[in-house]
Amino acid sequence: MNYLLAKVKGRSNSFLKVIASRQVILEIPNLDNTVDYSPNTLLDNGEWFKIDDFSECSYTNGLIENTFSITDHNQIMSTQYSDIKYLCCKQDNLFLFQKMSSNQLFTKKWINISDSPTLYRDKPIIVISDIIDAIYDKQEDILYFKDIGKIKQMFRGIEELYREATQEEVDSFLSRDFISLGNEFTSRNVKVANRRRIALALDTLDNFNNEEIITICDYTESYCINLTRDGDRFVVNSEEDLKQVLFGIEQRYYTTMIGDEKRVANSIIEIG
Question: Nearest Cα to 24, choosing from 70, 112, 73, 89?
Fold first, then answer.
């Protein structure tokens, strides 16, 4: 038996039963192409991120960490449908999660298609989307997903995997010896994307010694010809300048072997 459950707004961790069916409720996508999750990686078409040994990560949601029994879940009430945050379909060993958007629940006049059509008024309808936001394979203990931003409300604490640097961390990074702020640019001007890159860069710099930091600065300068350097410091006048420095720290610049073209990698996958 397959079950569709709903997580509704509120402090409770409980899931409510929507329907039970012997038919497949959500189609399971192809999971053959997977990549270990990294904030540095962008997915290609058809690829999924995966996190192995997910139960050991402590990203709980009140459902997958427990032994499943439908008798533990109350039937959803008609007044609660508008409060659904996301849906979860239990099919065999898989839990398929789908974020609930406002355009999936609406109230209109509609006619059921049958030999005896009936006109319905003011009957809310839930449209089940074909899009799956996350899949948890309980038997293999693997979580699959495409966009961590869409699943952070489903798994408590998972946002730490793509956390933004704190204001203190941003200030600390911008005070490094190889950076000089100019043109009235301050830490308060740093937006979300660069705050995430700073969090990654700080971890990377922790593994560099002083000579390696000098090397990485020279490497960055060799590619970023529009980035001003004042002595040993990069002059950061804008978010774009900051991004170029951060990409340099992550060694995203490279030169093609054939054609000698200088490029930047928007995504990184370690292969060795």
Answer: 89
Instruction: Report the predicted TM-score, pTM, of the whole model to 2 decimal places.
Output: 0.78
DSSP per residue over the chain, as a string? -EEEEEEESSS----EEEEEESS-SSPPPP-SSEEE--TT--PPTT-EEEEESGGGGT---SSTTS---GGGSPBPPGGGGGGEEEEEEEETTEEEEEE--GGGEEEEEEE--SSS--EEEEEEEEPPPS---EEEETTTTEEEES-HHHHTTTSTTGGGGGPPPPHHHHHHHHTSTTEEE-TT--GGG--HHHHHHHHHHHHHHTT--HHHHHHHHHHHHHH-TTS-EETTEEEE-SHHHHHHHHHHHTT-EEE-TTT--EEE-S------
Q: Could you tell me whether strands 119-126 and 84-91 are parallel, antiparallel, or unpaired per DSSP bridges?
A: unpaired
Burial class (CB in 10 A: 0-12, 13-18, 19+), 88: buried
Structure tokens at 194: 């660069």
Is 105 a residue whose pLDDT tops 70? no
Flag whether pLDDT at 272 surpasses 80. no
- β 134-137/16-21 pair status: unpaired
Give the separation between CA 155 and CA 169, rounded to whole angstroms. Answer: 25
pLDDT digits (tens, 9 = 90+) for 193-239: 999 999 989 999 999 999 999 999 999 999 999 999 999 999 999 99
pLDDT tens-digit map of 140-191:
999 999 988 889 889 988 888 878 899 999 999 999 999 999 988 999 999 9
